[in-house]
Amino acid sequence: MSGLVIEREILIEAPAEVVWRIITEPAQMSQWFADRVDLVVEPGAHGYLEFGDQGGPVVVETVDPPTRFSFRWNYPPGEEPVAGNSMLVEFTLTPVGDTRTHVRVSESGHELRDWPEAERQRYADEHRDGWVDYLERLGRVAAELRSG
Amino acid sequence: MTAQADDELWSAIGDPSRRRVLDLLVWNPAVSASWLAGHVPFSRQAVSKHLVVLERAGLISRRKQGREVLYQVEADRVDQATRAMADLASQWDRRLGAIKRLAEAAHAEAHEKRDLMARRASDD
């Protein structure tokens, strides 16, 4: 699903175990993420993130310390999040030597469930630049359309 | 967390086949569903469904011309989608920056403590 992803990365001057704690401990999460974090970091756990007067439920998917943590959010109220109705946020931590950690975060989602895999992969390959580039391109064309 | 309106937006453009329909509309203003169906590898019914979702997300609009219904891209909404997407990416940049500061501060503090304890131990 390479065509449907936002991906960002950063190199941190701290070991993966330290970075892992910052990313997954609710008390730490409230310092870089949501204003209030009500979450147990265990696979399948349901929690809640509060952002000012907004907020929403999250469901933890993968917890594999200190390398992988993922959760789903932005799904319709009353439904369970699955591929196709939610956004998946994934953190991947890779140790660089003993004291540094490379962190990649990706947010992807709303994959089409009933789309044949071969066709999906082919389209993803054709659009491997992802949403951001897709929309940048679309935005440029739209601006030209409007001014033209 | 994105608002409900953005949810519809991501859902609309997250689907590869809908992006293909939207691509066609960007490059071919004011075309019919039948014309679109002739240019994609899926059925006329699927095209109709995709048009409904794109229209609900505000990315396209329709108008009647004679007996035909023609579809066109809503440039303002596409612009808005572009900005929202860039926002989402920069939100993650900000969050990663904050994680870096917190982790490096925690690491430096642990180091200082260890150095301090090592000095005390050697003083004894």
Describe the structure.
The complex is a heterodimer of chains A (148) and B (124). Chain A is of the alpha+beta class and 148 residues long. Chain A has one domain (2-147): Alpha-D-Glucose-1,6-Bisphosphate, Chain A, domain 4. Helix content of chain A is 30%, strand content 36%. Chain A contains four helices and seven strands, in the order βααββββββαα. In chain A, strand 3 (46-51) and strand 4 form a beta hairpin. In chain A, helix 1 crosses helix 2. The model of chain A has no long low-confidence stretch (mean pLDDT 79). Chain B has 124 residues and is mainly α. Chain B has a domain at 4-75: Orthogonal Bundle (Arc Repressor Mutant, subunit A). Chain B is built from five helices and two strands, in the order ααααββα. Chain B has helices at 4-14, 16-27, 33-37, 44-56, 75-123; strands spanning 60-65, 68-73. Chain B has a two-stranded antiparallel sheet with strand order 1-2. In chain B, helix 1 packs antiparallel against helix 4 (44-56) and helix 2 (16-27) packs across helix 4. Chains A and B meet through strand 1, helix 1, helix 2, strand 4 and strand 7 of A and helix 1, helix 2 and helix 5 of B.
Order of helices and strands of chain A: EHHEEEEEEHH
This entry's quaternary arrangement is: heterodimer
- As a whole number of angstroms, the C-alpha radius of gyration of chain B is 26 Å
Q: Number of helical segments of chain B?
A: 5
